[in-house]
Amino acid sequence: MARITAGIATSHIPAVGAALDNGKTQEPYWAPVFAGYDWTRQFEEAEKPDVVILVYNDHASAFDMRVIPTFAIGCADRFNPADEGWGPRPVPVVEGHADLAWHIAQSCVLDEFDITVINEMDVDHGLTVPLSLMFGQVERWPVKVVPIAVNVVTYPPPTGNRCWAFGEAIARAVESFDEDLNVQIWGTGGMSHQLQGPRAGLINKEWDNRFLDRLSGTTDELRHMPHIEYLREAGSEGIELVMWLIMRGALGHSAEQLHRFYHVPASNTAVGHIVLRPNQE
Ligand code: DHB
Ligand code: FE
C-alpha cells in the first residue's frame, strides 16, 4: 500500500534556482539560504521517497488568462522545465507517476473533489526550485513527481479550509493505491512577499513564524484563516501559503516538526521551510 511518510514545505523563489544554476550558492548572500536545506538533503537521502506529490502554483507558464484551473493534477509521464524568459532551467526533465496520478484524480473526483486532469504541461520555478533545494544538482531527479497545480495567481484562489480538505482527500487516495510506495507531499510558495504595488518588498517575520508554529501539533486553526489576512499580513503573494495547507491536511490530525528554517532576505521573499512527520494515530 502507498503511504505518506512526510510533508515538506518551502518557498520557491526563482532567484534561488538561478543562484544554483549559476554556481553562486557559496556567495555570502546565498550561502545562509542553502545552509537551511542541508538537513533536508540528508533526510531525503535517508528516506528515499519513491514519489513526491508536489503542490505548487504555475506562474503564467503553463496556464494564462485563457485557462485558470483552481486545482489541477499532472497525469503525464514527463514534464519539461518551462521557459520563463531566460530559457528552461538546466535541470532534469521531471518524471511523472501516471498510474498514481490517475488514481488520485479518480479517487478525488469520486470523493467530490473535481480536479482538472492535465496531460501535457511544462513546470516552472514553483515546482523545479523546491526539487533543486531538496536534491541539489543531479543528472536525474531521484523521485517521480505528481504535480498538483493550484491557482493562487488570479482571484479567487481556493480557501485555506478547502485546501486542507483537498489534502485530506489526497491522503485517502494515496492510502487506497495498491502499490507499495513511499510518498511525500510538498507544499510550496510563500512566505510573506509582495512583488507589486506600493507595498512591494513587504516581509512579516512575526506573522510567518506564527504560521510555521501552527503547522505542527494538532491545531487546525490555519484552515480558518481568511484570504484578507494573508493579503494584509503576508502581502499579495503571501496567499501562496494556502498551498502549504494541502500538504498539512494530507498529514492527518497530528504532525511532528522535524526541521524548520526561516531566513530573510532572499530576493523579495521570506524563505520558510519546514519538514513534518505525520503522527500515527
Ligand atoms: C519571487 C518569489 C516567488 O514566489 C515568485 O513566484 C516569484 C518571485 C521573488 O522573491 O522574487
Ligand atoms: Fe511564487
Number of DSSP E strands: 10
Helix content range:
25-40%
Supply the CATH architecture.
3-Layer(aba) Sandwich
Radius of gyration: 17 Å
Unreliable stretches covering 5 or more consecutive residues: none
Pfam families: LigB (PF02900)
Organism: Sphingomonas desiccabilis
Keywords: Dioxygenase, Oxidoreductase
GO molecular function: ferrous iron binding; oxidoreductase activity, acting on single donors with incorporation of molecular oxygen, incorporation of two atoms of oxygen
Model description:
This protein is of the alpha/beta class. It has a single domain, classed as Protocatechuate 4,5-dioxygenase, Chain B (3-Layer(aba) Sandwich). It has 9 helices and 10 strands. The chain has helices spanning 14-21, 31-35, 38-47, 98-110, 125-135, 160-175, 205-213, 227-234, 242-250, and strands spanning 3-10, 51-56, 71-74, 78-79, 94-95, 116-118, 144-150, 182-188, 255-266, 269-278. The strands form 2 sheets. An 8-stranded mixed β-sheet has the order 6-3-7-2-8-1-10-9, with helices on both faces. A two-stranded antiparallel sheet has the order 4-5. It is globular, with a radius of gyration of 17 Å. The protein starts with a strand and ends with a strand. 48% of the residues are buried. Fe (iii) ion binds next to loops. The site of fe (iii) ion has 5 residues, from loops.
